[in-house]
Amino acid sequence: MRAQFVLSEIGVGLRRNLTMTFAVIVSVALSLALFGGALLMREQVSTMKDYWYDKVNVSIFLCNKSDAASSAKCSKGAVTAQQKKQIEADLKEMTELVETVHHETADEAYKHYKEQYSDTAIASVVTPDQMQESFRVKLKDPEKYKVIATAFAGRDGVESIQDQRSILETLFNMMRSVNYAAVALMFLMLIIALMLIINTVRVSAFSRRRETGIMRLVGATNFYIQIPFIMEAAFSGLIGGLFACVLLLGGHYFLVDHGLELAQQMPLVNFVGWDVVLAQLPLVLVIGLLMPSIAAFVALRKYLKV
């Protein structure tokens, strides 16, 4: 009988404040969708780091005849066969850091350059002797690039040392900035949702002040009086959480797998899979359920004098 009464009170409250309830559902859905999107963006950055850091190399570019005339680091002339042999030997001795070492000749570098920039005007004027030989070093731990840079920078025959990881950091920093913006917007929407929940509970409690007064007179406990209001807010939050889950699933489906088909248009990007998306949904639902309930409980202590 009590459960039936509580459920009927929830239905009455939702019908009386239908527009505000709808506003609560929409704001909760948007804030939780942004929250889930921020979580997915963080997972995306982590996934891309794991994927790309395992593939990046440290490139040790060697001096050629052109560098000897234009670069202060190559003032002693082009790299000699003995210097190349010594650099390679030293790299291979660093077994704790270095996984593989590949020597790219000037002809190989020229071939790769032509493949990448064959459509540009400058490709026709570049000659093989202008290309630099290099050692492509794959590290066991890409974070220890500075050890290689310190060991070989300034050596005779070495023109420069490039860490490909630094190129990717620009992309990752941009994605982090987008993530921070999403988190900031999420907090703004969350504040709006909490204000709507508090106002909705306040209006609902005011409109039913006579009923709650009678319930107090007949000895109803504070919790028994408060529970319909809390459950109304929880129900609205749960519906908003479900909509947020739909938005996250739909976003992954239409943006990555179908629609824009980013997974096919950007094959070099390792997008997070459905397992990662599904793993975030329970957290979104739990927050969607608890956040309005707690907000309603706090609001009732202030506005519902029981």
Automatic annotation (TrEMBL):
Keywords (A to Z) from UniProt: Cell cycle, Cell division, Cell membrane, Membrane, Transmembrane, Transmembrane helix
UniProt keyword annotation of Cell cycle present: yes
Domain FtsX extracellular: 56-161
Segments crossing the lipid bilayer: 20-41, 180-201, 238-256, 276-300
Biological role stated in the UniProt entry: Part of the ABC transporter FtsEX involved in cellular division.
Quaternary structure annotation from Swiss-Prot or TrEMBL: Forms a membrane-associated complex with FtsE.
Protein name: Cell division protein FtsX
